[in-house]
């Protein structure tokens, strides 16, 4: 995969020109949760030595010195979702290099449905990955309709007692 290619192979993620595997993302999320090497190994059914090897690769790939810097970098890049617990990799986030290119106008603007839903206070990061994947494919107009329906339901919530409808 070329460094400037922003297409991502299944099970892999390209962040700031670094190709991260889904296993590395799982380990990073577990680190952010506070799991030890032994806990990660036990939960993923791999040896502590394998976890250590993945960690060494992550540190080298992201040019960071330790676990704390690694987790901070992944949060700063938007790879790990902020405001969610337990920590999880964000599907469809815009990587640093691409975000910079968007700001500089060198890449055509693309609509990020998940980010638009987050900005509208929808709890998308609490949903399973399969549901987030569906939401990530929404168009800008579909997100506007979803927000409009939610707002209209909220305005009418006082009229219907004992009923609750959640869109997300």
What's this model, at a glance?
The chain is mostly helical and 168 residues long.
Question: What is the fold's blueprint, element by element?
Answer:
Layout: E1 12-15, E2 18-21, H1 22-33, H2 37-44, H3 48-61, H4 67-76, H5 96-104, H6 113-119, H7 129-136, H8 140-155
Antiparallel strand pairs: 1-2
Helix pairs in contact: 1-3, 1-4, 2-3
Kindly name the structural category: mainly alpha
Task: List the total number of helices.
Answer: 8
Radius of gyration: 19 Å
- The CA-CA distance between the termini, in Å, is 35 Å
Name given to the CATH homologous superfamily of the largest domain: Winged helix-like DNA-binding domain superfamily/Winged helix DNA-binding domain
* CATH architecture tag of the largest domain: Orthogonal Bundle
* Assembly state: single chain
Q: Can you put this structure into words, describing what you see?
A:
This protein is mainly alpha-helical and 168 residues long. It has helices at 22-33, 37-44, 48-61, 67-76, 96-104, 113-119, 129-136, 140-155; strands at residues 12-15, 18-21. A two-stranded antiparallel sheet has the order 1-2. Helix 1 (22-33) packs across helix 3 (48-61), helix 1 (22-33) crosses helix 4 and helix 2 (37-44) crosses helix 3 (48-61). The model is unreliable at 1-12, 96-103 and 105-109 (pLDDT under 50).
């Amino acid at each position: 995969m070329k460094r400037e290619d922003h297409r991502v192979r299944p099970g892999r993620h390209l962040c700031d020109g670094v190709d991260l595997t889904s296993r590395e993302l799982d380990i990073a999320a577990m680190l952010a949760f506070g799991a030890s090497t032994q806990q990660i190994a036990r939960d993923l059914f791999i040896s502590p030595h394998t976890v250590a090897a993945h960690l060494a690769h992550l540190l080298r790939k992201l040019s960071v010195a330790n676990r704390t810097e690694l987790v901070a970098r992944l949060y700063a890049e938007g790879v790990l979702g902020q405001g969610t617990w337990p920590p999880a990799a964000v599907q469809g986030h815009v990587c640093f290099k691409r975000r910079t290119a968007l700001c500089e106008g060198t890449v055509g603007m693309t609509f990020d449905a998940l980010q638009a839903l987050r900005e509208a206070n929808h709890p998308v990061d609490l949903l399973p990955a399969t549901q987030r994947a569906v939401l990530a494919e929404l168009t800008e107009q579909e997100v506007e309709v979803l927000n409009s329906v939610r707002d209209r339901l909220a305005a009418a919530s006082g009229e219907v007692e004992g009923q609750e409808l959640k869109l997300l």
